[in-house]
Amino acid sequence: MAFEGISEKIQNIFHKLTSRGKLSESDIKAAMREVKLVLLEADVNFIVVKKFIKELSEEAVGEKVLESLTPGQQVVKLVRDKLTELLGGTQAEIKSGNPTVVLMMGLQGAGKTTFCAKLAGYYKKQGRKPLLVACDIYRPAAIKQLHVVGEQAGVDVFDRGTEKPEKIYKEAMQYAVKNACDFIIVDTAGRLHIDDEMIEEMKELKAAANPTETLLVLDAMTGQDAVNAATTFNDDIGIDGVVLTKIDGDTRGGAAMSVRAVTGKPIKFVGTGEKLADIEPFYPDRMASRILGMGDVLSLIEKAETAFEEKKAVELQQKISKDQLTLEDFLDQMEQLSDMGSMSDILAMMPGGNKLKGMQVDEKQLGRTKAIVLSMTPEERRTPQMINGSRRKRIAAGSGSSIQDVNRLLNQFDQMKKMLKQFTGKGGKRKGMFKMPF
Amino acid sequence: MGLFDKIKERMGKTKENISSKINNVIKSFRKVDEDFFEELEEALILSDIGVVTTDKVVDKLRDYVKENKISDPGEIKQVLRDILAEDMQAEPLAITKPTVLLVVGVNGVGKTTTIGKLTALYKSQGREVMIAAADTFRAAASEQLSIWGERTGARVIKYAEGADPAAVVYDAIDAAKHAGSDILIIDTAGRLHNKKNLMGELEKIDRVIDKAWPDAQRETFLVVDATTGQNAISQTELFNESVKITGIVLTKLDGTAKGGVVCAVKDITGVPVRYIGLGEGVEDLQPFDAADFAAAIIE
Predict the structure, then answer these.
(1) pTM of the full structure
(2) Does residue A5 register a pLDDT over 80?
(3) Checking DSSP bridges between strand B273-277 and strand B247-251, what pairing results, if any?
């Protein structure tokens, strides 16, 4: 997951701080110097770093911190709070309009077209009727790409070939009215912030469209220049927010920290993977925790909740407490788990998860386990006790695995049942989910 | 227009940025002292040269200044230019017949466009070029490549979306052998370098090329977006672990206010820059020349 590199280093620095009882001013100074280097290596804008470190140092050497019982931890908390502040404080949403019109723009290759479809899918799930408008009339096959991803997201796509963007937009709005689309997303051509002609085109389109929101799509891997691009787009065209793509890379994401600080415009969404479902609102506090290696448990829980239907959860709860859990439920859970994203994504969000870096989660194992369960008869899934030697043989052959694999799965299922039972007593609602034996 | 002038013109922003910063530092100091080096360091970091490489460059500069007893900040520029040029220097690229050129990179760096331009460049040198559309993942990627194929008159081997890229490569090699092509350029899907499975797919393509055409010259270019910051180093290192990267194509240098990442990549990974993209036009992809480049950015 993104920010791993930076978290690891900052954690080392913090470890040095928290392992000491009393801190002197020079201890903090030394730590701050290291934080500064880490942030610079993470592509955080130089000017932002300077200001951040200056403010941080002033507060950190204040009496409150140094004289507290746990100065190390106080400093860590301070860094986290300051970082949250730098990342924007609270979560910012897309304003609603009637219809909502979102104009997307950005440099070439930032991921605009893909993100348009992700956003459409996201709002479709919330009951809106999105329309994608193809205004990238320059890049070869850009319109085709929007059609394909639009179809994957199950939303309408409007294009008029390589007509002028304003004209396309006007006709698209007529189409929207006719088809009751209430969330219009306009995809535009990638442009450089220093290309006057293209910036002019964007200004005209924006004036004609009068969008509810204009969003700048920014690649999380951008370097020191992110700030320049964002500032120019903001000054020349005006933006309401930023969307950060490709944060599932190993980028340290300095751009994220800088853009908000310099332009004052919030980051609204992040793109977290190649699939259309890989989109999340941006939460500054959670991101700050993630950067510092405190884990992103809140995002994880939310992901689990969207994938996990409430009703089923209640049913499961009852079954667990009555010890009636079957392999069918097991299969169900496994499917819901894969709805949440890849196992490695989920791991990265857990506290200390980035320390498991070397550990490879075998996604195939999930598939193999699934195959074994699917090779059982419904009756066998409901009452695993009946699975005797010859049944095991049949299941193994049916799923292309060995009898040992089948045995292992049955054992694990047994253990899981016991474990889950322990949780239910304490009202630990869904905790059991993460203890699944894979 | 010579290459030098072209770089100078197109990299106006980069040049202005690095140069003006360095010029400012030089102007505001009367003598070369520690404060001067510190300011210079800052200017270099802001140019995406990175903390590590900046340290090295400044250390070299410090040594040189000491040895040659330089006290006038004005003399520093040429020295800095030489140091950067030397750091970026590499053996020239020689392409023999037949060559398989694999093009890889993260999403959105401009792989497909680069291939279009490379094809045009090689065609203009009178070489027969064939293209394999092994990006079977991104929607409309092969269409984009086909348009380039039409523009340049190169044959494009493609399958339906979602096909096994290694199979496309295998068939393309077959076709290139029969057609007697000089160069086979393979487009691949953009992938983030930290995704094990996707890098595994790339390794498979690599093996297929080795097996199907063992006597062809192998070149593997990593396309890097010049706006990328220090992540370019991680990209080079991780791609290099899967497929041996022989060169870097640095794209979108015309827009970025930086160019420093070029120095960092070569310094840390040792992989040379082969081409740079200076604009949207077909002729805007240029072979990389270290001395010209250094001279153009520090004016």
Answers:
(1) 0.71
(2) no
(3) parallel
